[in-house]
Amino acid sequence: MEEKKGLFARIREGLAKTRRQLTERVEDLISYYQNMDDDFFDELEEILILSDLGAATASELVSDVRRKVQTQKIGNPEKVKELLRESLMEMLGDSEPYELQSPTVLLMIGVNGVGKTTATGKLAAKYTREGRKVLLAAADTFRAAAIDQLAVWSERAGVPLIRHQEGADPAAVVFDAVHAASSRNADLLICDTAGRLHNKKNLMDELSKIHRVLEREAPDSHREVWLVLDATTGQNAVNQARVFREAADITGIVLTKLDGTAKGGIVATITKELGVPVRFIGVGEGIDDLEPFDARAFCEGIL
Ligand SMILES: Nc1nc2c(ncn2[C@@H]2O[C@H](COP(=O)(O)OP(=O)(O)OP(=O)(O)O)[C@@H](O)[C@H]2O)c(=O)[nH]1
Ligand SMILES: [Mg+2]
Q1: Most CB atoms within 10 A, among 1, 115, 137, 152?
Q2: Whose CA is nearest to atom 26 of ligand 1?
Q3: How many CB atoms lie within 10 A of CB 99?
Q4: For 47-86, how does the pLDDT look when each residue is reduced to its tens digit (9 = 90+)?
Q5: Is the Cβ–Cβ distance between 187 and 101 less than 8 Å?
Q6: Residue to substitute in 17, 114, 118, 254 for testing ligand 1 pocket (most ligand atoms within 8 angstroms of CB)
Q7: Rounded Cα–Cα distance for residues 63 and 59 (Å)
Q8: 3-class state of residue 134 by DSSP
Q9: What does the alpha-carbon distance between residue 162 and residue 138 come to, in Å, rounded to a whole number?
């Protein structure tokens, strides 16, 4: 229970910008309109779109709120905030917390600069704290700096890192890491990959090569592919997710940088339009700034 309370508080904190903007705008709207007519609902929809809920999601939410206002004969605009939260909650549904199966190989993918390496480090620290044995693989071999950056995280988290030199074949790094993970009885091997795969074909080629290694060398490991998305890019992140989904079997999403943006509504769009569960959210640059995604905490955090 204590932990749950902490989680709610931290998610709330991370969503502060989104909440402030959204709440302010909804309250302005409420104070301006005496009754809830077409204009009121049009403006409400616009407010939601500005918080990056996405046009389709915003429109569905507003229709739902409107229906409730009519069927429940609600005349007071003050009620709208509560109805909105309720409708959002119904739309997202309750989220099951992610349960790590042992052993798991987790691939972190996503475009340049979204926060893959940072999320890798945070996850390594989190599971180590929980008593799991974690290993990292530096499968982003594009730059020496990328490998060094992951090395810093591996030290912070206190987990071993399997690395090759710059320019090495990422699949070869994964090959070595899988063997190291199995000989150390690791629960979780996290592979940080490069964001510089210029096109879909490169990405697919590299991922299928890694998957082949995993099929051959770690057939009994559970496999996860998590797409990392930067919340500050708003709808762009949703577009990225669509492209990546065509190239890879994504099993989860990590949404980063929610602390620095008022575009928190993006979570709803991703959950709803992509059907891939958001597993974790990033709420800062520190090692502890990663929270498991919880739909209820999220709804309360943004409204
Ligand atoms: N505020 C904030 N910053 C974050 C978060 N996650 C990552 N960052 C910052 O985003 C920047 C990029 O993070 P990286 O982890 O290097 O991103 P990457 O996807 O590995 O980047 P490439 O390897 O270059 O593709 C860094 O400055 C991080 O500190 C977050 O949740 N909140
Ligand atoms: Mg990186």
Answers
A1: 137
A2: 115
A3: 5
A4: 998 888 888 889 999 999 999 999 999 988 889 999 999 9
A5: no
A6: 118
A7: 6
A8: strand
A9: 6
